[in-house]
Amino acid sequence: MKNQEVSPVCGSCLTRHKTVFRHLFSEDINNIMSEKSCNYYKRGNIIFSEGNRGTGIFCVHKGIIKMFKTGVDGKEQIIRFAKPGHIIGYRSILSNEPACTTAKAIEDAILCFIPAKTLINLVHKNPDFSMELIKLSCKELGDANKFILDIAQKSVRERLAEVLLLLKETFGLDENSTLQVALTREELANIVGTATESVIRLLSEFKADKLIELNGRHIKLLNIPKIYKISNIY
Fold first, then answer.
1. Beta bridge partners of 44
2. What is the C-alpha R_g of the chain?
3. Which of 15-19, 49-53, 148-152, 170-174 has the lowest mean pLDDT?
4. The whole model's pTM is what?
5. CATH superfamily name and code, 2-151
6. pLDDT tens, 99-129?
7. Which residue, 29, 46, 50, 36, is CA-closest to 4?
8. Strand pairing partners for 221?
9. Domain parsing of the chain, residue ranges
10. β-pair partners for 68
11. What does the pLDDT read at residue 6?
């Protein structure tokens, strides 16, 4: 369930310089502030669902969101994660199509909702903003193409190693070299594209090989060069 939150001030948002909104003028920022709303989502809350038509986009102010598709058997395939500064739901607005993924909070989150008409007005008005959206779309398409190639050509062991490196790149490590995101074994399996049992077995193998250390949902990376070698990333 979402709860109404006091809207963060866009002009002083600490993540704005990392987002597509960094090229906006003061007038545009003021327009967004007057038209947006902000909501709090608990872990497990759905932000929007695959197949539904959106009425706007979401900018993540706090928390982590997973984007996934659901297979015919009900199994999730996680496509990507959104963290503070990321926007979600924009492609269905620009293409005027139903959402192709579901967005779900994996930790308590605060998201700002920007109506579709506000986004479209910015696209028409600000070429730099439009270019940022194009670059973002191209990056996500490239990531999707790479994922398809990995699924087809890499072993589950290689894909798990690559996922650990992806999580490191996306969320970073703390001072103890522990990933700064805590995922369930099922969520890890849903990124890798395999059964939960396979991920549990491989994590145990990685631990036995002193590549990682496990503490509940937290994973500490002990030998990053070796993990790179296993991942077969070029």
1. none
2. 19
3. 15-19
4. 0.85
5. Jelly Rolls (2.60.120.10)
6. 999 999 999 999 999 999 999 999 999 999 9
7. 36
8. 212
9. 2-151, 154-231
10. 78, 102
11. 62
